[in-house]
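Quick one, C-alpha cells below:
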C-alpha cells in the first residue's frame, strides 16, 4: 500500500509541474493572440505598460495626451476581455463606487 501512495505522490508532483508549464504556455499563447488583434499604437502601449512604464511617460514618448493613452488602454482591456482575459485591477480613475464610503466598523 505504501508503494502505491509513493507512486501517487510522484504523479501528483509531475502533474503540478505540467500545470505550471501549461499555464505559462497558455498565457504566452493568449498574449500573442491579443497582440495580433491590436493596432500598432496599442501594441506599443501594451508593451510599455508591461515594462512598467507609467501612463504619463508613455504619453510623452508617443507625443499624445495622457487621456489618449488611457483610452487606448481601455481598448486593449476590451480586446483582452473578448479573449477571456480579465483585468487584474481597475485604475483608481475608473472606480464606479461613490467617493463617500461607509464608516469603518470598529
Amino acid at each position: 500500500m505504501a508503494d502505491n501512495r509513493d507512486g501517487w505522490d510522484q504523479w501528483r508532483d509531475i502533474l503540478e509541474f505540467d500545470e505550471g508549464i501549461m499555464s505559462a504556455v497558455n498565457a504566452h499563447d493568449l498574449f500573442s493572440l491579443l497582440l495580433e488583434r491590436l493596432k500598432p499604437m496599442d501594441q506599443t502601449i501594451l508593451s510599455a505598460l508591461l515594462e512598467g512604464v507609467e501612463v504619463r511617460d508613455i504619453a510623452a514618448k508617443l507625443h499624445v495626451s495622457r487621456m489618449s493613452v488611457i483610452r487606448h488602454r481601455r481598448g486593449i482591456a476590451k480586446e483582452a476581455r473578448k479573449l477571456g482575459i480579465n483585468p487584474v485591477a481597475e485604475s483608481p480613475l475608473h472606480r464606479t463606487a461613490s467617493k463617500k464610503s461607509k464608516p469603518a466598523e470598529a
